[in-house]
Amino acid sequence: MAVASVTPTPLLKDELDIVIPTIRNLDFLEMWRPFFQPYHLIIVQDGDPSKTINVPEGFDYELYNRNDINRILGPKASCISFKDSACRCFGYMVSKKKYIYTIDDDCFVAKDPSGKDINALEQHIKNLLCPSTPHFFNTLYDPYREGADFVRGYPFSMREGAATAVSHGLWLNIPDYDAPTQLVKPRERNTRYVDAVMTIPKGTLFPMCGMNLAFDRELIGPAMYFGLMGDGQPIGRYDDMWAGWCIKVICDHLGLGVKTGLPYIWHSKASNPFVNLKKEYKGIYWQEEIIPFFQSATLPKDCTSVQQCYLELSKQVKEKLSTIDPYFTKLADAMVTWIEAWDELNPTGEGLAKPSILNGPGK
C-alpha cells in the first residue's frame, strides 16, 4: 500500500518575515521559491516610488515604497535612508513577527560540497533557536550541533548558554570586500565552504554584512537600525556595519549571543569598486576612530531594554563622535528618531497586534 508523503511544515512559518530591499524586479525569487514561498515577504522599494516592481506569482508579500514610508512615519521618515539598501530597516519596523531574515536581490541559492541546494533560511532558524556561548569559547565550534559537544574544561555552569539574538550568514563567490580590497583583488572569489557556526565572543566586535542575516526581532529589533546613509549623506555602505557595532555592544550588555558562519548564499555580482570607493572613503578613515569608540563603550546597569541601551548609545555617539564630523550629530539624532518611530509602530503591552497607523502599503 502506497503511503502518502507528508510535506513537513516549514520552521517558524507564521513567526518569520523575509525583508528584501530592492530597486528592480524580483526575478531572483524564482530560485528561492522552494524555500521562501511559505513565508511572508516585506519588500522595501528604494529609489523612484513611481517605478513598478514586479514580484513573481505565488508569493505572499507587502511592498512599501518611499511614499508609503513618508505616509506611515510622517516627519520621522527622515531616519530611513534613501537610495541605499539601509532602507530595509523600515521592513524590520513594520513587521509584526518574532523573527526577521533579510537578503539582497543579488543573492542566489548556493550549493554545499555535495552539490545539494542550501536552505539558508532553515539554517538561520536553527542558529536562532539554539543557544550561543558568548562568555566562554568552545573550540569545537557550536557545541549544540549534532555530533558536537562542550570540550573538556568547559565550565558546566555555563553550558546552558545565552539566547541567540543574531545569525550572521556568509557568502560563496563574491566576497564582501571594501572598495580598496576589491580593486587590489578584482578576480578573487570565495570558494571555501567551512561547515561551521561559532559564537562571536563577548567584547569582540565584528563586521556585520546585511545581505544574508537573520535576527530575533523581539530580542534585538530596535537596535537593528542601519543608520543614515545614501542620498544626502556623506557616507554609504556602512549601514550594516553600524548596526553590527551597535547590536554587539547591546547584546554583550544584555547577555545575548551573536553567531556567524553557516548558512552560505551565492553572491552573484560584485558592485563597482569605483562607485563603492566614493561611498566608502570617509568611512574608511572614520572607522579607525569609530571602532575604538565601540570597543570602549559601556552601558549603565539601569539600561535593561534594547531601546534604553540604544538611546544611551546615541548620547555617547553625539558626545564622542561628533568631533570627527558634524554627520555624527545628525546620525545620533536619527538614532533617537528611529526609536521613537519604532515605539510608535510597536507599542508595548499590545503583543504583536498591528497598530492602526499601519493601513498597509500602497500598491
UniProtKB/TrEMBL annotation:
<keyword id="KW-0413">Isomerase</keyword>
<dbReference type="GO" id="GO:0005794">
    <property type="term" value="C:Golgi apparatus"/>
</dbReference>
<dbReference type="InterPro" id="IPR029044">
    <property type="entry name" value="Nucleotide-diphossugar_trans"/>
</dbReference>
<keyword id="KW-0961">Cell wall biogenesis/degradation</keyword>
<dbReference type="GO" id="GO:0005829">
    <property type="term" value="C:cytosol"/>
</dbReference>
<dbReference type="GO" id="GO:0071669">
    <property type="term" value="P:plant-type cell wall organization or biogenesis"/>
</dbReference>
<keyword id="KW-0333">Golgi apparatus</keyword>
<dbReference type="InterPro" id="IPR004901">
    <property type="entry name" value="RGP"/>
</dbReference>
<comment type="similarity">
    <text>Belongs to the RGP family.</text>
</comment>
<dbReference type="GO" id="GO:0009505">
    <property type="term" value="C:plant-type cell wall"/>
</dbReference>
<keyword id="KW-0325">Glycoprotein</keyword>
<dbReference type="InterPro" id="IPR037595">
    <property type="entry name" value="RGP_fam"/>
</dbReference>
<feature type="site" description="Required for activity">
    <location>
        <position position="152"/>
    </location>
</feature>
<feature type="glycosylation site" description="N-linked (Glc...) arginine">
    <location>
        <position position="152"/>
    </location>
</feature>
<feature type="site" description="Required for activity">
    <location>
        <position position="159"/>
    </location>
</feature>
<dbReference type="Pfam" id="PF03214">
    <property type="entry name" value="RGP"/>
</dbReference>
<dbReference type="GO" id="GO:0071555">
    <property type="term" value="P:cell wall organization"/>
</dbReference>
<comment type="function">
    <text>Probable UDP-L-arabinose mutase involved in the biosynthesis of cell wall non-cellulosic polysaccharides.</text>
</comment>
<dbReference type="GO" id="GO:0033356">
    <property type="term" value="P:UDP-L-arabinose metabolic process"/>
</dbReference>
<dbReference type="GO" id="GO:0052691">
    <property type="term" value="F:UDP-arabinopyranose mutase activity"/>
</dbReference>
<protein>
    <recommendedName>
        <fullName>UDP-arabinopyranose mutase</fullName>
        <ecNumber>5.4.99.30</ecNumber>
    </recommendedName>
</protein>
